[in-house]
């Protein structure tokens, strides 16, 4: 079926809508508002000033935090908006916010507050939908006793929680007491409510969710299912629609059950009913209902041709749904991958930095009506909150963008996703793009043999060891050496390092450090024509051509450039950007940062970073939470020195070897960048035996 775009603004005449969110979802909502001729109002905190969502909106107003209900209400009223769209996260499922909007005379673009309350509590939600005849997972909730549960394996969940936080898998009665204590601690810390429930753990589970839409006139329809089984630590990574596991009859039954769950609480607007499905028997059970728009909603838009944000606005304005259940058609297949600021090679720790250069494929989405009624071929859509020059910190969710593809069939959609990810480059920030490509191409994924534990089981295949120097591609080192060699090192044109001498050209040595170590890259000749390169003593014939540099790029490639690098007869194209002495290179979705060292630096030797020079570096951008050591203190290998926190994740930084803390560069409460030196542990003479063993 076609989209509803083009019918004009909602009948009740919203002329302005405030978006109580940030990042890619705020950008996405603003674009639908623009298409409807409705003024979009963004809010931002000081650290987000100039963010992409503020530039996409017609009006942008500062607020203290995205959780400050009164400030957001005041901003909406000051702007003249009649409605507030919460997006997802922050206040999207906050019943108090929905009620406060109503008190202020603003329309909350979401369900009634009572429906948010009913579905926000897992225990109450299960009871409500079970009474409506929807199948639920057998379980027990407090205040009943959980300690004498006997049906294992079992899953303990915080009643007030979401996003998998606090869930604990229990395989035997012996594990139960500690699991309950652990889940309760997490629930109290994360949600302020330690109430728990325990459920039978479904073997070989698939996570299938149904998108529903309901209006104020009692009409409820479902828009098919999404498969969300590709998860890590209960967090979704890649989603698709329709599910390769669900057939038409099961889809109809699950859709009817989801619609009944919505009717049971008087639901209005867009919502998602999540089911856990037995991958062997196909039996399905209600898990929870998300009373908001979902991150993965674009895959539903692409297979239905509907703009879900537009439908939310029309329903909020009191309009009837413009179609019935029999009108809904699913066409083709859509897949979405979430691009995160995280480092898979470091245990998926959060990353951050400034976006030095950015390339994103496809349409900026949505244009949903235009892109969701395809006529042959594949479609690429990108929902993104990224902009060149923007800062990516650790104060908010690490999701940066979503790359979504549609094609007539699943195999073509997955292949298109891989190509789109390969054409995505974010320089200045480490991302999970190579991990996403490996996951999408895994044989179990391409075969549709999915379950919620698959990613964890195959993780070693998806994230191979990357911490050894030999695994850094030689062509990347050659490219970095050539780029540094080609750039003037000062204002004097004689500073160009062409290596010219009376006789034959001389070698110029560059010491380049990556996360894998410090390498000696020697270059002689003219790199833009032909040059000789030696990497750690090995000869590599190479040359580069700088194809494209934006007109406003400052000297030194700091705004991004496209390079063709030929190494050993093979030419590869790179995106390149420079930040002071660090050069970023991107290719095929991967990126590398290489920092130029001064000659004579103590770390100026191949493999220095891997060998352990005593420098203790931050594993992620964040804030120093606790300092456990003092200058001059004697420490042992593995002893905790500091705790760094980012995205509510704590990471303990330990001593790399026995020694004495000779430097302590930070204090509690101090923000730090990834790889910033936090401390230095110097070996003492008595530690020579350990040093000899390491050597």
Automatic annotation (TrEMBL):
It holds the Pfam family CPSase_L_D2. One of its GO terms (molecular function) is biotin carboxylase activity. Keywords: ATP-binding, Biotin, Ligase, Nucleotide-binding. SMART domains: Biotin_carb_C (SM00878). Its cofactor is biotin. PROSITE patterns: ATP_GRASP (PS50975), BC (PS50979), BIOTIN (PS00188), BIOTINYL_LIPOYL (PS50968), CPSASE_2 (PS00867). The keyword Cytoplasm does not apply. InterPro entries: ATP-grasp, BC-like_N, Biotin_BS, Biotin_carboxylase_complex, Biotin_carboxylation_dom, Biotin_COase_C, Biotin_lipoyl, CPAse_ATP-bd. Residues 596-682 form the Lipoyl-binding domain. Residues 13-460 form the Biotin carboxylation domain. Residues 126-317 form the ATP-grasp domain. The keyword Iron-sulfur does not apply. Its EC number is 6.3.4.14. It comes from the Bacteria. PANTHER family: CARBOXYLASE:PYRUVATE/ACETYL-COA/PROPIONYL-COA CARBOXYLASE, METHYLCROTONOYL-COA CARBOXYLASE SUBUNIT ALPHA, MITOCHONDRIAL-RELATED. This is biotin carboxylase. It comes from Nonomuraea diastatica.
